[in-house]
Specification:
By secondary structure, the chain is α/β, with parallel strands linked by helices. It has a domain at 2-181 and 234-263: Rossmann fold (3-Layer(aba) Sandwich). The protein contains 11 helices and 14 strands. The longest helix is centred in the N-terminal third of the chain and has 21 residues, at 93-113. The radius of gyration is 19 Å and the shape is globular. The chain binds uridine-5'-diphosphate-4-deoxy-4-fluoro-alpha-D-galactose.
């Protein structure tokens, strides 16, 4: 299939582009490069060994999106584009609601006009909010989130459910990511956060490489294995394979819309991840314990059984592989995607 990957130059999008090529699909990237770098394209082509088409496009712009669908025959869309920083969404809710909702509405609208009915959407485990206990199953109800970013995912899931119900033949997979980490094993593609990383693994990576002095552990008084927060970290290459599995399953789906958790089903604490990273890198990761971070949960991990049963997909990469691949990426690319490629 010819698959439009919105946000295809970003962290999850770029790994998904590679997984699509590997599976014999043809990805077409649409990205506005607001939180990604053009340099990723050269690297994607190097790893994939084929040219990869990319359009710089603003998906909140109906005309621009319409133009894209006019020039590209598209069979399916994987919609990864969106703003994703929880803290930033609290201070800039207008921007988050406008960008994430309007771009999704625009993509869906243009899909409908062009008869494209297959959609895989990047959702998030944040839709489960704070009121459900782990392991989190897809039927947990109600869905809610404590921050505007998460709320955009809840609203978009609802929007897509209504759109799919009203348009004949639509098939939509809602992929609820747990905590994507790691990098492609080539060391060429990885996470390239701008400024101070919000998330744990990229922060640890920058401490290990000497770019930052120490990690602050956000609280060690939770009721968890060692007092620090537990999460379900999933290798981004496994996550990308989950997108292809969902895409390939769409036509066989018996409902218009189906949500799938993409997680491992296991949880790892902050300190366990620090230790694993130290092992992988051979470096010490100094840390201090600070107060809890607002809005954080003690524990969140997936029940991944639906994806296994229905998509035939499961995560296979261990925490040690996640750390080793992240470390390779971090060392090879001290300044992220703008680092020079070795000859
Ligand atoms: N943590 C630290 N220090 C840091 C950063 C994080 O101790 O500098 C801790 C957090 O308190 C938490 C764990 O590391 O216990 C993981 O934190 P992340 O910020 O990496 O990830 P979150 O689980 O908070 O959030 C992630 C995504 C969100 C998504 C959510 C869904 O970043 O986009 O998972 O569950 F909404």
């Amino acid at each position: 299939m010819r698959v439009l990957v919105t946000g295809g130059a970003g962290y999850v999008g770029s790994h998904t582009v590679l997984a699509l090529v590997e599976a014999g699909h043809t990805p077409v990237i649409a990205d506005n490069f607001s939180n990604s770098s053009r340099g990723v394209l050269e690297r994607l082509e190097l790893v994939a060994g084929v040219p990869i088409e990319c359009h710089e496009a603003e998906l909140t712009d109906v005309e621009a999106t319409e133009r894209l669908f006019r020039v590209e025959p598209i069979d399916a869309v994987i919609h990864c584009a969106g703003l994703k920083a929880v803290g930033e969404s609290v201070s800039a809710p207008l921007e988050y609601y406008r960008n994430n909702l309007v771009s999704t509405l625009t993509v869906a609208d243009v899909m409908a006009r062009h008869g494209v009915r297959r959609l895989v959407f990047s959702s998030s485990a944040t839709v489960y909010g704070a009121s459900h206990a782990s392991p989190l199953g897809e039927d947990s109800w109600p869905l809610e989130s404590s921050n505007p970013y998460g709320q955009t995912k809840v609203i978009i899931e609802r929007m897509l459910t209504d759109i799919a119900a009203a348009h004949v033949g639509w098939k939509v997979a809602l992929l609820r990511y747990f905590n994507p980490v790691g990098a492609h094993s080539s060391g060429l593609i990885g996470e390239d956060p701008r400024g101070i990383p919000n998330n744990l693994m990229p922060f640890i990576a920058q401490v290990a490489v000497g770019r930052r002095d120490r990690l602050t552990v956000h609280g060690d008084d939770y009721e968890t294995i060692d007092g620090t927060g537990e999460r379900d970290y999933i290798h981004v290459v496994d996550l990308a394979a989950g997108h292809v599995a969902a895409l390939d399953h769409l036509d066989a789906m018996t409902t218009d819309v189906r949500a799938f958790n993409l997680g491992t089903g296991a949880s790892t604490s902050v300190l366990q991840l620090v230790r694993a990273y130290e092992r992988a890198s051979g470096r010490t990761v100094p840390y201090t314990v600070g107060p809890r971070r607002d809005g954080d949960l003690a524990v969140a991990y997936a029940d991944p059984s639906r994806a296994r049963a229905e998509l035939g997909w499961m995560a296979t990469r261990s925490i040690d592989e996640m750390c080793a691949d992240s470390w390779r990426w971090q060392q090879n690319n001290p300044s992220g995607m703008s680092s020079r490629l070795a000859n």
